[in-house]
Each structure stands twice: as structure tokens, then as C-alpha cells.
UniProtKB/TrEMBL annotation:
It is a multi-pass membrane protein. It comes from Mycolicibacterium tokaiense. Keywords: Membrane, Transmembrane, Transmembrane helix. It is found in: Cell membrane. Its main location: membrane. This is Sialic acid-transport integral membrane protein NanT. Residues 27-421 form the Major facilitator superfamily (MFS) profile domain. The keyword Iron does not apply.
Length: 428
């Protein structure tokens, strides 16, 4: 009888009731910072692509292949660190993956052999695979549902804000110290900063209370929370098919985003002939536009639902990449303006982070979220840019414009995923 009562109490524990305001703030701070530094690590190869190619004596295509290897490695890391987070806790997984990719960046900054450098990026890719599922599990299991879409978009925006920080740091070090020394010092600075966050998390990051509660519940036990959202009874085939289409949608948005992230910096410097300084300003404006688009569609998802908001965002992406394809072949000024359309072409990420974390139950939220996110990232950010560049015959403008295919795929995939707006997150 006592065990039944205790299990009932545990099953009624929710994200809205489990934490004190102070604990919730710490969880949110570490989630935001974790997203920021994971993005900084992830984009270490894109901004200084030409500098890396020159230092190691390789082609841009070989650097893109290294980005592909890093992204594919994150699939392995997604399953590994998702399992660690669901088995041993969100906190140890957070500390482990943050420290691992930080150390890989520091070691990579000292290397002169490209093949060995690629190995460090593969190791970093495995570690990066832990970030999304753990960060959004921490967030979903501690934040109230009413404005979860808006706050989730702020958290997701940190993944793009990290790109901005990477650009600022590497621009500063490269312009001050020169191409070779600049990217190396930039790598080391970012790696040391990320390692400091891992140490801080050891002391101050609270463990997820809903995860702890879920570990005390017999499998399948719990109180039915009632039909408060479309997915409160998500299970079996409905869960499986929803996961498939959610992965397809996320793959498409990744393909759109990495068409921009991978090719825009080099398109500006090589195709349009802009200086490093001017290119950095243009990319900074694009990053700010991207952050704004995330927050707009994330907040909208609290009003119209996750599915409809993602659909609108993907329509914007199709239009943005289409405008670039049609308008970027003119003057430099027109090319820069047209690039703005691609900078907001992956606004669906403003919704997807929250949608994915709400979709899976607590007992395997980190693993399920990571599986969706990193399979999608491996395909969309790993294979797709290499495919696009090959299809374009090395033409960076054409390769970037092909991101519109990704936005269209995201649009199709989102139509078949159950909406989760308003779902109550419990220990189940």
C-alpha cells in the first residue's frame, strides 16, 4: 500500500511543481550556457574554413568532409550520451560531454597533421552528440508548460548565438595573430572556456528531479494525467511513427541551416570577394536575424501549436532560399541582401527543440530526443552539405541555394507529427 501511494505521488510530480525558483534558474542557466558552448564547438570549422585549408594544405572540400565526419560522429554520441543521461542522470552526462569536446578543441589547436586533426573533430563530434537531448530534457523537466515554446526558442537560439561568438572570437584572433596562429589560439580559448563550464556544472548544476522520480517508478505505473494535450497517450505505433516524421522534419531543417552555416562564410569571402571584416559583419547580422526568427516562431508555437508554427517557419525557409537562388547572381550588394533570406531559412529550430523534448516520455527523453536530433543532424548537417557541394560542382552559391530543399522536407515532415503544445511533463 505504501509503495502504491508513493508511486502515485511520484507520478503526479510535474515540471511546474518539482523545483524551487532558485533551482529552476540554475537549470536554465546551465542549459542556456551548454547550448551556447556546444554551438561554439560545432561551428569551429565553418567560419575559418579557408584558414584551416591553408594551414593544413588541403581543399575546402576536405574541410567540409571533416565537418561531415564530425556531424556523423554526433549520431553515435547522441545514442551514447542519451543512454548515459537516462541511466545515470542529466548532470553526469552534461559534465562528461562538455569536458570531452572542450579538451578535443584544445588538443586540435596544437596539431599540424590534418588526419590527426580530423580524429580530434570526430571525438568532439561524439561528445557534441550529448548536448541537445540532455539540455532540452533538463529544460522540459523544469519549466512550466504555458510559455515553454517561447523559453525553448530562447534556449535553441543559444545554439545560433554560439555561432556568433565563434565568429567574433575567431575574427579577433585571426585578424590579430594571422591565419594559422589565429585559428589555433581561437580553438584553445574556446576549449578552455568550455572546460570551465564543465567544472562549474560539477558544483552547481541540480540533477533533474523528474528523472530521479522516474527511476523510482515501476515501468508502466502512473496516474493518467488526462487528455490535456494531443500526446498525453502517445505510445506504441503512434509514438514510433511520430518519431520517424519528427526526424524527417528535423533533418530537413538541419539541411537548410547547414547550407547557410557551412557555405555562407566562404561564399562571402571567395565568391563575392569581401574582406574578413566585412564578411564577419554580414554574418553577425544574419545571426541576429536567425535568433529573432527562432524567438518569433517559438513564441508563436505557444499560441497556434508546435505543428502549425513549424509549418509557417518552413514556408519562410522555402521562400528565403528561393529568393537567394533567384537574386544572388547579381551585384555584390544584391548578393549580400539575398543572403538574408537564407539566414532565416531555418527558423523551424525555434520550435523543434521544445517539440522534440515534449514528444518523448521522461524515462527515455534524453535518448529519444538525441536519437531524433543527431540522426537528423548527421544527415542534414553532415551528409547534405557535401551532397549539395558535389551536386553544385563546387559552386558555393548554388550549393547554398540548395538549402531550400531542406526547408521543403521540413515542411512535409512536420505535417505528420502529433502536436505537443500544452503537454504536462511528469515523471512518466
Amino acid at each position: 500500500m505504501t509503495n502504491s501511494v508513493d508511486a502515485g505521488r511520484v507520478s503526479q510530480l510535474t515540471a511546474a511543481t518539482a523545483y524551487t525558483p532558485r533551482e529552476r534558474r540554475f537549470v536554465l542557466i546551465f542549459a542556456v550556457v551548454g547550448a551556447l558552448i556546444e554551438s561554439m564547438e560545432l561551428n569551429l570549422l565553418s567560419f575559418p574554413m579557408s584558414d584551416l585549408a591553408q594551414s593544413f594544405g588541403v581543399t575546402n572540400q576536405q574541410v567540409v568532409a571533416a565537418i561531415t565526419a564530425q556531424s556523423l560522429a554526433s549520431i553515435v554520441g547522441g545514442f551514447l550520451f542519451g543512454w548515459i543521461a537516462d541511466r545515470f542522470g542529466r548532470k553526469p552526462s552534461y559534465i562528461l560531454f562538455t569536458a570531452s569536446y572542450s579538451i578535443a578543441a584544445i588538443i586540435g589547436s596544437t596539431l599540424s597533421d590534418f588526419d590527426t586533426f580530423v580524429v580530434t573533430r570526430v571525438i568532439a563530434g561524439v561528445a557534441m552528440g550529448g548536448a541537445f537531448g540532455v539540455l532540452f530534457a533538463m529544460f522540459a523537466e523544469s519549466w512550466k508548460s504555458r510559455k515553454r515554446g517561447f523559453m525553448g526558442s530562447v534556449l535553441q537560439a543559444m545554439f545560433i548565438a554560439g555561432q556568433l561568438l565563434t565568429q567574433i572570437i575567431l575574427f579577433t584572433t585571426i585578424s590579430t595573430l594571422g591565419s594559422d596562429a589565429g585559428w589555433r589560439i581561437g580553438f584553445a580559448v574556446i576549449g578552455v572556456g568550455c572546460l570551465a563550464i564543465a567544472v562549474a556544472a560539477y558544483f552547481w548544476l541540480p540533477e533533474s528531479k523528474l528523472w530521479q522520480a522516474s527511476r523510482t517508478m515501476p515501468h508502466g505505473h502512473g496516474v493518467d494525467p488526462g487528455p490535456t494535450a494531443e500526446t498525453d497517450d502517445l505510445r506504441g505505433k503512434r509514438l514510433a511513427w511520430g518519431a520517424v516524421f519528427l526526424t524527417i522534419c528535423t533533418t530537413g531543417v538541419f539541411a537548410a541551416s547547414y547550407s547557410y552555416i557551412t557555405f555562407a562564410p566562404t561564399f562571402l569571402r571567395q565568391t563575392l570577394g569581401l574582406s574578413l571584416g566585412v564578411s564577419t559583419v554580414v554574418l553577425t547580422i544574419g545571426t541576429l536575424l536567425g535568433i529573432g526568427s527562432y524567438i518569433v516562431f517559438g513564441a508563436l508555437s505557444d499560441r497556434v501549436g508546435r505543428r502549425r508554427s513549424t509549418m509557417y517557419a518552413c514556408l519562410v525557409g522555402v521562400a528565403g532560399f528561393g529568393a537567394f537562388a533567384l537574386g544572388s547572381n547579381g551585384s555584390v550588394t544584391v548578393g549580400v541582401i539575398a543572403l538574408a533570406g537564407t539566414a532565416i531559412g531555418y527558423a523551424g529550430f525555434g520550435v523543434l527543440g521544445t517539440w522534440i523534448s515534449e514528444f518523448y516520455p521522461t524515462r527515455f527523453r534524453a535518448l529519444g530526443s538525441n536519437a531524433t536530433y543527431y540522426v537528423a543532424r548527421g544527415l542534414g548537417s553532415g551528409l547534405y552539405p557535401l551532397f549539395a557541394l558535389t551536386l553544385a560542382g563546387g559552386d558555393l552559391r548554388f550549393a547554398l541555394a540548395l538549402g531550400g530543399i531542406g526547408a521543403a522536407l521540413g515542411l512535409i515532415g512536420c505535417l505528420f507529427v502529433p502536436d505537443t503544445a500544452g503537454r504536462t511533463i511528469t515523471a512518466q
